[in-house]
Amino acid sequence: MLRRIARFSLVASVFWISSCGSSPAPDTRSADEAAIRALDEQWSATAAKNDLEGTVAFYSDDAVLLPPNAPLAKDKKSIRESWAGLLGPNTAVSWTVSTVEVAKSGELGYLYGTYQLSIKDPKGGPAINDTGKILEVWKKQADGKWKCIVDTYNSDIPAPAVPEVKK
To answer: Which has the least CB within 10 A, 54, 63, 78, 157?
Structure first.
């Protein structure tokens, strides 16, 4: 009889201990996706105002920018220099997000969408108009705020044809 009671106590204890384990973290993907989308809308509006410092502030301290036809920008200084080449009194830039996804862990997210860029010729010539694609990777920082850690964009305009070499 004593053995049965001991076995029952042992089995009950195992079930009780296993039920006390940590519950899974809540799924916050929907809220995180909405937060990233809202931040990205603010970012686009900031860039549209040609606010260089405000635009660069959306990047984490260890972010990288992969601009087209240029070297990788691996620090805030080089990211700032890359944006300084785009933002100015004769330019208009904005972008729109198509899709935002966040990992179940709630630590990383990405988005993609399209951009529009217009550069007016200060001498009155025709403006340069460009459209293209964007891809951003976002990471939740230690303070709980989202920052962009990887950013890239590329044009929809076809590359110029390579001239034929005459023999």
So the answer is: 157
